[in-house]
Amino acid sequence: MTATDPALTALAQGWCALSLLHGRIEAHIERALQAKHGLSVREYSLLNTLSRQHDGEGGHLQMKQVADAVVLSQSATTRLVTRLEDRGLLKRYLCPTDRRGIYTDVSEAGARLLAEARPTNDTALREALDEAAKNPELAPLVRAMESAGTSGEPSHGPDESSDAGAEQVIVPA
Q1: CA of 40: how far to CAs of 84, 98, 111, in Å?
Q2: CB-based contact 94:102 (threshold 8 Å)
Q3: Among candidates 72, 49, 71, 68, which has minimal Cα distance to 60?
Q4: Positions in the chain whose pLDDT score sits under 70
Q5: What is the bridge-based pairing of β-strands 90-94 and 169-172?
Q6: What single string gives the DSSP state of each residue in 59-128?
Q7: C-beta neighbour count of 109 within 10 angstroms
Q8: Which tens digit of pLDDT belongs to each residue from 60-105?
């Protein structure tokens, strides 16, 4: 294959379209979350990820797993956790069984803010997808995303009425 191979060119065009769709969606959600809740997309994503934890086996995420979920480096994720902790949205404490580990919980204030912001996020996502679907280059990606969302996986994790104190992440020391 050469750099001008039609298959490579089509693949590159597809990647550009996917990147464009992601950028448009993220920018639209960012504006909505900032305007209504003072949250960035990354802050919302971190709160949402941490809210999915549970006390069952494998229910606590390690910082690398959290970083992967919010698409940040471990150090950037740690800084983000610190910022949200400073705002009273997260709280940390030592792991009771391994003093080297630190748990991070979504605080009651963080759980309330997440519950308030979730409809804003969902509405902004729907608006961005509807707008993108009007673009013939992006419409197939929107359809693919929508059909992937109907796979039966929960979109927000466990029941939203669960106790905020049970939402934990292990942060390696």
Answers
A1: 11, 32, 16
A2: yes
A3: 49
A4: 1-3, 58, 96, 151-173
A5: unpaired
A6: -SEEHHHHHHHHTS-HHHHHHHHHHHHHTTSEEEEE-SS-TTEEEEEE-HHHHHHHHHHHHHHHHHHHHH
A7: 14
A8: 777 888 899 999 999 999 999 999 999 999 988 777 677 777 778 8
